[in-house]
Write a structure and sequence with these properties.
The protein is mainly alpha-helical. The chain has three domains: about 5-80, no CATH class; about 85-130, Arc Repressor Mutant, subunit A, CATH 1.10.10; about 135-175, Arc Repressor Mutant, subunit A. Helix content is about 70%, strand content about 0%. It contains ten helices and no strands.
Length: about 180
């Protein structure tokens, strides 16, 4: 009878790999075998094949799998040196995706910081997406509340609070909810 590869078999296989790697860590073997290198390389490759990942995100995921950081750091550095893993590419793709979802610059910067992207790389990514934050704030406001200008103070504050929650700065918010700019 032929065995099919289902999710249970994959979980068992992953558990075996994890136990094996923990056993290696406990034995304090200093030299990495070719098999260990292949496992780590395959794990990193699978992650990067799906989407861009930040350096810190890959480190976190590998540590969650039970792989020692001294084992995967040299391999991860090789990926970075070969420009297979790039924080700049990750930051730009993540910033563009969040911009298209209607997030403001403050929210995008915060999100990139949570992924471990440094501030200069985040700033560069924000410039690269060439965003019009004023029009973006206006579109987000119109999508949620409509195109009309709100005269009632409480409802206007609700609109401002919503845009602030979405990560827009005060000048973007004022532009989006102002009467002279609305149609």
């Amino acid at each position: 009878m032929r065995k099919t590869l289902d999710s249970r078999n994959v979980r068992v296989f992953n558990a075996k790999i994890t136990r094996f790697l923990r056993l290696i860590q406990k034995s304090k073997l200093t030299k990495m075998s070719e098999f260990d290198r292949k496992i780590i390389t395959d794990a990193i490759t699978r992650m990067l094949a799906r989407r861009e990942h930040s350096f810190n995100e890959i480190m976190r995921k590998l540590q969650q799998k039970g792989i020692a950081s001294d084992a995967f750091m040299p391999i991860l550095e090789e990926f970075r040196d070969a420009d297979i893993q790039s924080d700049a590419r990750f930051a730009e793709s993540r910033a563009r995706a969040l911009y298209l979802k209607g997030k403001g610059p403050r929210a995008i910067k915060l999100d990139l910081q949570q992924y471990g992207v440094d501030e200069s790389t985040a700033e560069h990514a924000m410039r690269e997406i060439d965003a019009d934050w004023f029009e973006s704030a206006k579109k987000v406001k119109e999508k949620k509340f409509g195109e009309f200008y709100e005269t009632e103070f409480a409802l206007r504050q609700k609109q401002k609070q919503f845009l602030q929650y979405r990560g827009f700065y005060q000048e973007h918010i004022e532009y989006a909810v102002s009467a002279n700019e609305s149609s």
